[in-house]
Specification:
heterodimer, A: 581 residues, alpha+beta, 7-stranded mixed beta sheet, 6-stranded mixed beta sheet, disordered N terminus, B: 318 residues, mainly alpha, MetI-like fold, 77% helix, globular
Chain lengths: 581, 318
């Protein structure tokens, strides 16, 4: 079935023999490390933005060459084509309703409470169960989705959300104004995630289908905030419930077994059912922690697709003409270090600049991401519509050394601790970054903190530098609270910059795209100048979904990068031409 | 009776020691589950309330005694990470799968090892003896995770005879065929390491027993070879074998953990690994408690079985 099966067979046998030779006599003492690493990596990532866990497309990806007499390739940004791949005649692909698939997930879910921090594994499943109030179109502009309309007042201090009539939750309850109010109010009141709606003063059900949000300040970009978790609607009686999700999406949660997976079945009352959606009868989400297990299950046909967080796995499949590799259009997380700008030595701009100059981002990308990621100079990907270049210090050891010498002449040696969650692969990257710093005379030490303690540690400012994964939201306004000086405790680096504040405010309060872009340019420029964070890379490309060629996208619906790759995959499965039961 | 009470006392002692040490170690881990549970904006009062709700307030001894009091009623507290589920809910979901895996593995291992050992002992140096010994050494050298990958690749990917992962496992009563089909590869993988141990052990004991006078007497009386091997040789040769089986059942738990990851079985191994990674302390403590009881109980049963197999032990105890 697969072109490179022989090669893989040989590779597995050889690697197995090598491992056996190395480990003979031991009862697989190394195995847990090897098998847990992917899960541990995912869980270790602080993931504050509920909608930022999806990968983005590779900006430098080029479409595959197409033979003249072959059908045109998919005009799909998500499909990173390799030679021969993507040559699919769309016209010949008719959706065939029915059947079910098993889809492998890397991360286990921890529940579905929409008023709490939702784990990446849960978000994957929720994409099948949920439609948000607002979606994004192909140009990443917000569009009403579950909502029929969102109407602001003149100065954007109040928004009225009007729902589509006749919408039902999975339990048959109506999605009316009161239900929307209850969901939004619960989210706002949440001690865990309510900060995202701090600017909302009151939420009022105006009539049967409408809700009004009154704000403390103008917020033209508010609808972007309702694309992700704040815009998820669940039946009012289940708000705050962790073990189930009674949403509005194309599938209904039939079962969820922590540590194992979830099964979702077709929602017969789906509001887009007249379009034939969803095509599948059911999807089994199977939690598969180990990449080898996932791959073997895929090649054996036990799973029809899976999300791979493994760069080498992705590269391998890109070479395989008979497997599709899908890399979404959404912004992925960035890997970076937060610097606490209120504590020495990072209260001095020269040290921050020296750190940025000292680290060779491309080396990290080549060594640890197989060259699949893009160097970062800020939270926005170069492919992002809001992206502009800034003057973030680039790799220049000599410049770093000069800055270090200048600082040390005044204050003595530069020493710091890097707080990091205990994840082997992340620590490995951090250690290499430390070695770059050592080269210019900066002495860093790694300080491991408890698993899942990142956010709390950062909030308490109990750090000097912090290994961090975050950002990459489709709209920069979602990251407002993490940079703005009035973002309170969530201004991670504690930097107070008038330019950052002004830029973010301009992006939030203006409707005009040029004005917003100017605001975000100011924001990015200030980030480059002030260097409150050491940016490494945009993690798009290190996660992708691989699927059988039977699963192709035939429907160019509203692109929904905010709900991510898997939701797009659910669109893809419309062309399942072989029911898998 | 006395020996029973002594063993039971030992069981209780080991349970207390292991659970307390586990409790102590979990207490030393960095981070505060109550703070994590409470969320980012939680006030100290809210955190304190949650700490009380989760049973995390008070000194280590207080908490341990409180936990112990609840544990005897199978109330191990709620999962801190997977809210909405109690620790016992999660264990109840995964324990049967691990037990099934271990039982199947033991049955397979014994089913393969005993006939092979008998055949090898009957004709030491024969082809079957050499072949089985060589294979046993080979299997001993292969860690379970390597063996699992090979098995999955050959029988799952290449031949397509068995699934490479266990998914939506039906109960044995509901769909025994599908259940057995899904559990075959993981059980066999786990069993093959055991086969090697059992085969070597039993073979050498059988050869030794075959030198006994009463065996020669049986042969002289004209009993059939099969009858002598199964009725007069196997039983007295089974003491070490029984010990190994008993100890390995407990030891299998470790192997099962690896197999569960390799074949995506939602068993106790995956549960404890995930719980440790996510610092779901209540679940970890519950799993350790149950495994401790299981381990000690297993050793107790092996002791009892000893005295049945060899009356000399029973008499010595008196």
């Amino acid at each position: 079935m697969f072109v490179s099966t022989r090669r893989r067979t040989l590779a597995i046998l050889v690697s197995g023999a090598l491992v056996a030779a190395a480990c003979s006599g031991s009862d697989s003492a190394d195995s847990p490390d090897a098998t847990e690493a992917p899960a541990a990596a995912a869980e270790a990532e602080p993931d504050e933005t509920p909608d930022d866990s999806e990968p983005a497309d590779m900006p430098d990806a080029e479409p595959a060459p197409t033979a003249p007499d072959e059908p045109a390739p998919l005009e799909d940004e998500d499909q990173l084509t390799s030679a021969g791949e993507g040559n699919v005649d769309l016209a010949s692909l008719e959706p065939i309703a029915g059947g079910e698939i098993t889809f492998g997930l890397t991360n286990d879910g921890t529940g579905f409470d929409t008023t709490g921090a939702v784990a990446p594994g849960s978000i994957r499943v929720i994409t099948a169960l949920n439609d948000s109030l607002v979606g994004l179109d192909a140009d990443a502009n917000w569009q009403p989705n579950l909502a029929e309309s969102l109407t602001p007042n003149d100065d954007f201090t109040s928004w009225t959300i009007t729902m589509r009539p006749g919408l039902l939750f999975h339990d048959g309850e109506p999605v009316d104004g009161e239900a929307v109010r209850a969901n939004l109010q619960a989210f706002k009141d949440s001690p865990t995630v309510g900060f995202a709606m701090a600017q909302v003063d009151s939420i009022t059900a105006v009539d049967e289908l409408s809700v009004r949000l009154d704000l403390s300040a103008p917020w033209a970009a508010l609808p972007y905030g309702l694309v992700g978790q704040p815009g998820w609607m669940v039946s009012p009686s289940t708000i705050g419930t962790n073990e189930t999700f009674t949403g509005t999406g194309p599938f209904i949660l039939e079962s969820w077994t922590p540590g194992d997976g979830a099964r979702v079945v077709r929602n017969p009352n789906y509001w887009r059912a007249d379009e034939g959606l969803p095509y599948l009868d059911a999807i089994n989400f199977k939690f598969l922690v180990d990449v080898t297990v996932k791959r073997q299950a895929f090649e054996a046909g036990d799973v029809q697709g899976y999300v791979s967080p493994d760069d080498e796995d992705i590269l391998d499949f890109l070479d395989d003409d008979e497997t599709d590799v899908w890399i979404g259009t959404a912004g992925a997380n960035e890997y970076l270090w937060l610097l606490n700008t209120t504590a020495a030595p990072f209260d001095d701009l020269r040290v921050r600049q020296a750190m940025a100059h000292a680290i060779d981002k491309q080396f990290i990308i080549d060594a640890f991401r197989s060259g699949l990621t893009v160097p970062a100079n800020g939270p926005l990907n170069p492919s992002d519509r809001w992206y502009t270049e800034n003057n973030y210090p680039q790799f220049d050891p000599a410049a770093a050394q000069a800055l270090v010498d200048e600082y040390e002449a005044e204050f003595g040696p530069i020493e710091f601790e890097l707080s990091i969650e205990p994840n082997a692969s992340t620590i490995e990257v951090a250690e290499v970054m430390m070695s770059f710093l050592t080269d210019v005379g900066i002495d860093g030490k790694i300080k491991e903190i408890g698993q899942g303690q990142s956010a709390l540690t950062a909030i308490l400012d109990d750090f000097q530098a912090f290994s961090w994964f975050q950002f990459g939201s489709p709209d920069p306004d979602s990251d407002y609270v993490f940079f703005h000086s009035s973002g309170g405790f969530l201004n991670w680096t504690n930097l107070v910059s008038a330019d950052i504040d002004a830029g973010l405010d301009a992006g939030r309060q203006n409707v005009d795209e040029a004005d917003r872009k100017a605001g975000y340019a100011q924001f990015l420029q200030a980030l480059g100048d002030e260097v409150p964070m050491i940016w490494v890379d945009h993690l798009n490309g290190v996660e992708a979904a691989v699927t059988l060629p039977e699963l192709h996208e035939v429907e160019h619906v509203v692109a929904e990068p905010e709900v991510g790759l898997l939701r797009q995959l659910l669109r893809l499965v419309g062309c399942l031409d072989r029911a898998v039961t | 009776m006395l020996i029973f009470v002594q063993r039971l006392g030992r069981l209780v002692f080991v349970f207390f020691v292991v659970t307390f040490v586990t409790f102590f170690l979990l207490d030393q881990a960095p981070g505060d589950p109550a703070e994590r549970f409470a969320g980012l904006n939680a006030t100290p009062e809210v955190i304190e309330g949650i700490r009380a709700e989760l049973g995390l307030n008070g000194s280590l001894i207080e908490r341990y005694l409180r936990w112990l009091g609840n544990a005897v009623r199978f109330d191990f507290g709620d999962s801190i990470v997977t809210r909405g589920f109690s620790s016992w809910d999660l264990i109840r979901e995964s324990l049967p799968k691990t037990l099934e895996l271990m039982v199947f593995a033991e049955i397979m291992a014994i089913g393969i090892a005993v006939p092979l050992a008998l055949a090898s002992a009957r004709r030491p140096g024969s082809f079957i003896d050499k072949a089985s010994s060589s294979t046993a050494f080979g299997l001993l050298a292969l860690p379970a995770f390597v063996l699992g990958i090979y098995m999955s690749f050959i029988f799952g990917v290449k031949l397509g005879w068995f699934p490479t992962i266990v998914d939506n496992l039906p109960g044995l009563n509901d769909d025994p065929l599908d259940n057995l089909r899904q559990m075959f590869l993981p059980s066999l993988t786990l069993a093959l390491n055991l086969v090697a141990v059992y085969l070597r052990l039993l073979r050498s004991d059988l050869i030794e027993t075959l030198q006994e006078d009463y065996v020669m007497l049986a042969q002289a009386r004209g009993l059939s070879e099969r009858r002598i091997m199964w009725r007069h040789v196997l039983r007295p040769s089974s003491l070490n074998f029984t010990t190994a089986v008993g100890l390995n059942i407990a030891g299998l738990i470790g192997g099962a953990f690896i197999i569960e990851v390799l074949f995506a079985i939602n068993g106790m191994g995956r549960l404890v690994i995930q719980s440790v990674i996510l610092e779901d302390f209540n679940v970890v403590a519950a799993v350790v408690a149950i495994l401790t009881v299981a381990y000690v109980m297993m050793n107790f049963l092996v002791d009892v079985l000893y005295s049945i197999l060899d009356p000399r032990i029973r008499h010595a105890a008196r």
